[in-house]
Specification:
The structure is a homodimer. The first copy, chain A, is built from 15 helices and eleven strands. With about 400 residues, the first copy, chain A, is an alpha/beta fold.
Chain lengths: ~400, ~400
């Protein structure tokens, strides 16, 4: 195991009706003037936004609002938010929504206390200072509620990049599984896929002897395999949604990724798809992961065999471990399709003609200098081959 | 899943040579005048205490020392530490040692800022204020490095009680697996057993549909089953010790115990043994757990069958699940004996004549009013029967 530090000081309030305490948590973490940041209609239609505002009023907290966050959140709204924070003297940002809203809130939080262009953080600069952020989560997926990460799409050129820094960990996150009961089966499945991708990205490591984190990752994948289809089938199933919600946070707060190299190839390759076609990130990952794993399998057949046996219940073929490894990848693909995810480019609205452009952007954008991948080093020609496996 | 809150803001520095940064972590968490608290000879002999002091000197931190913590730490030294803190104006307590030292440090930290008798906290009062505590861990076992708990033995009467409160979570914990390489096989096995007990206490729940935390607990148990025997066999095996160290923290920071009832019967029953006979807590648990589980098995046969299949690799006997449940308990017992733990009263130096006294103390001490157990409610006669299973 490699040396590491781990610091995850987010306060989680989990369960039914917990959003009623939003105001008191903001007070606990010293907020006085709040920017409430959210997306579109659903938080308004469901009455959630009203309930949250009511909770702030009860604590005599001042607030201003900025809605309009879209999936694959855009830089334009971030600039608007930063300006608003400065003009209004905001000292706390509350994100009410999913990963897109939280990531947009984090970008605003970092930008509001930074003299330069906030995009610097999405070009490799570590975030060391930010306004405090709290969240009321409405979809289990991105794990942004407990992570120090944020992903934003730059409108000029439509590319998607990530920023990180301990200052971006939310001060508190309110996780009420009931708030996710209004999601469609497709949205639910996208979330489940994203969570599973966060686990696979950590599982694919070149560090030896990391059984404890291997086992934790496998545990969370098994929990998703059990709860995912139930939540997709029955939106009202609170218990499955509760299991998914805690797994989604644990999958990405990095307690199961410490001390080991990680991959993130599937995310880098997917980001090009959702940036260009505006498809759902989870749907993009469902198509990307089996292709990436098939391409990379021979780098460490036993690792893919291990996850096949332990997570997917495949029988170990001791004479031909690569058969087991392949069966595990096929089991993942079948599972994702069974919960309603697309299986190829067509299902995403993606086009073969863009492959070269996307592969180039993946390998040369985001501070990359010609390659991606923490597990296997991949160059543009490799990434192109992976995209072709998705046709 | 039940509603819960989770807040674990301890900063972990994990890996080789991390104790060299102790001073800078104390500074980061605003300590200026430090009480260094430790046990006996081993931290002196190994040179660890000197290295830690050197690190404090480099940061120009003042410190005083209080050694002499014993296993099953005593109230007498806590009173001494509280007085010392007040006299010297201490604002940070650094524990260098294992669970006993950390628990003693936490007791001092709570008592130093409390007007009454610190024992109030070990009689049921929640700790809401305490001096900040940091730790340099030397044995993976108690999980106190990441928990809000502390256990102290009161010398008058020799009984062992616990306190809890978020204020007791360490500000930082330095986890260097290499520091545990000087432990004997017996000490290592005691630690492994304690960690496994923390997982079983959480596993035995009456809450339904908590698959995500079930799976996480199973994962950490599997990691212990893999790493435990290797560390016992080869003290120098850094990688196994690293896996055990992270598992030990995760087992007790409660991320795998949230939203579910927990048991803690084995701990309550064991505390009487280690208080009366001064045996190692882990050794006491090795004898206690199989007896408790055998007695309680019929309360939820399928839960015991689940852990037997998923953790111990038992074949499910679908016609007779109780056979599988029993096989899992036997597998646990055999495993513990295989790593050098005792299997009965004699191995602990415990005596049949004390059973009634211990059962009474367990059921009526620590604020209990005649029964113990979060999984099955047990009265004195039940506890006596369990002790008899250990003869």
């Amino acid at each position: 195991m490699e040396n590491f530090t781990f610091y995850a000081p987010t306060y989680f309030a989990f369960g039914k009706d917990t959003e009623a305490d939003t105001g008191s948590y903001i007070k606990r973490f010293k907020g006085t003037k709040v920017l409430i940041h959210y997306g579109g209609g659903s938080v308004i239609r469901s009455g959630l936004l009203e309930r949250v505002k009511e909770s702030l009023k009860q604590e005599n907290l001042e607030y201003v609002e900025l809605g309009g966050v879209r999936p694959n959140p855009r830089s334009g709204l971030v600039y608007e938010g930063i300006e608003l924070c400065r003009k209004e003297g905001i000292d706390f940002i509350l994100a009410v929504g999913g990963g897109s809203t939280i990531d947009s809130a984090k970008a605003i939080a970092a930008g509001a206390v930074y003299e330069g262009d906030f995009w610097d953080f999405y070009s490799g600069k570590i975030v060391e200072q930010a306004l405090p952020v709290g969240t009321v989560l409405t979809i289990s997926a991105a794990g942004s509620e407990g992570s120090p990460d944020s992903v934003i799409t730059k409108e000029e050129g439509m590319f998607k990049r990530g920023a990180t820094g301990e200052a971006l960990r939310p001060r508190f996150s309110i996780l009420n599984p009931a708030l996710t009961q209004t999601l469609s089966p497709y949205q639910t499945a996208c979330g489940v896929t994203d969570i599973m991708a966060h686990l696979y990205e950590r599982y694919l490591t070149n560090t030896k002897d990391v059984d404890v984190t291997d086992r934790m990752i496998e545990a969370l994948l098994l929990a998703m395999i059990q709860a995912g289809p139930k939540a997709v089938r029955d939106a009202a199933d609170y218990e499955s949604r509760a299991n998914i919600m805690w797994a989604g946070m644990m999958a990405h707060n990095n307690s199961c990724g410490v001390g080991r190299t990680q991959d993130w190839t599937s995310h880098d390759i997917e980001h090009e798809l959702s940036a260009l076609y505006d498809c759902a990130h989870g749907a993009g990952l469902a198509v990307t992961m089996p292709a990436v794993f098939t391409y990379n399998m021979h780098h460490d057949v036993m690792r893919f065999a291990q996850i096949a046996v332990r997570v997917w219940g495949c029988q170990m073929d001791f004479a031909h471990p690569e058969e087991t490894a392949r069966a595990g990848i096929e089991a993942l693909r079948s599972f994702l399709i069974s919960i309603g995810m697309p299986g190829n480019f067509a299902g995403l609205g993606a086009e073969e003609k863009d492959i070269e452009k996307m592969a180039h952007s993946a390998c040369y954008g985001n501070g990359n200098t010609g390659s991606i991948g923490g597990f296997v080093k991949l160059e543009q020609k490799d990434v192109e081959a992976i995209y072709r496996l998705m046709l």
